[in-house]
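Weekly modeling sync, notes
Attendees: S.R. (lead), two postdocs, one rotation student

Agenda item 3: backlog of single-chain predictions. S.R. asked that every request posted to the team notebook include the full sequence so nobody has to chase files. The rotation student volunteered to paste the first one in as an example of the format we agreed on. Action items at the bottom.

Example entry:
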Amino acid sequence: MKKPEVTEQPGGDPPSRRGRPPEPIGEDVGVAHRTWLEPVRDRLVASGLTLDELVCRSGYSKTRLSELLRGKGYYPGWEITYSVVKALDLPPWPLRRLWTAAAREADKNQGWIENRIRAVQPLGPELPPVAHLGLTQIMRGPYTAYARAFLQSENRAQRAVGETFDILWLTWDEAVAVPDTPRHAWQLLRARVMSRAAQQDGHPDLRQAAFATVAQAGIADLAERKTRIDTMADFFDAIARLPQDQMDVIVLRHLCGVRAEAVPGIVGLTPAMTHTLDHHARGALTGLYLRTGTTVTIDTLE
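Predicted structure, as returned to the notebook:
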C-alpha cells in the first residue's frame, strides 16, 4: 500500500498529511453500503490524496466523488465506484461483491446491477494474497457453523462469512500488521454475524437454536417436546448472555461440535486462555441452573 504523502511544517514541527478526511457518512446509509464505504474512505485518508487529486485520477467531478464518499444521494454505480477503487489501488474483486450486496440492500434490481458491472472492463483473474487464501480455506467451515448457530439459515451464514473474507482481503494490509491475524479475522467475523443476528435485551438471541437441538433428539411426544424446547431456549439464552469470548468458545465447542484442540486457532487465543474461558463459562452456566433447579447442563449439548 502506498505510504501517505506528508508536508514539512514550519518551526520543525512534525509533518502532516495532505488534504483532509471526507465529511462523515450519512446516517441513513445502509449496513451493507457502509461495509465497503468505510474501508474505501480509510484508504483515501491513508493515501494522503486530496479530493482534487482523486478527481484527476478517477475522471469524475468533485461533487460526484464527494457524494460517493458520504453515501449521499442515489446508490453509486459500479463505474464511479470502480474508478475510485482503481485510483486507490484497492483489490476490485472483493469490493465488487460488497458493492453488489449493498446494491441489493438499496433495492436495485438484478438488471441494473448487471448493466453497471458490464459497463466496466473485465477485472482479470482473481488473485487474493496466498496467506488470505489459506486462512479462508481453513476457517470457512467453523466460521460458517458459528454464523449458522446465530442466523439459523445456511444462506445468511454463508453471506456473513463471504462478507468477512471480502472485507479481510480489502483490508489485508491492516490484517497482517496486527500482532495476531487469526484473532483479527475472528473479531471481524463475529461483528458481521452479530450485525445480522436477532437481539434480545441487548444480547444475541440464540433461542431459535433450541428448536434445531430438540428436533435432533427425535422426541415424539408433543408435550414433552414443547417442555424440552422451553428449557433449552432458556439455556441457550443464558449462553448468549455470557461474556463474548466465553460465549464464542461454548458455541463453537458445544453447538458447532468443533474439537477442543481446534478452538484456539479459530478464535485466535492461546490453548490455556481458551481452556480458562470454557471452564469459567461452564461454571457460570452450572451455577445459574443449579439455582433454578433445572437439570440441563452444557454436557447435554454434546
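Discussion: group reviewed the output briefly. The two ends are 46 Å apart (CA to CA).
Action items: rotation student to repeat for the remaining queue; S.R. to check formatting next week.
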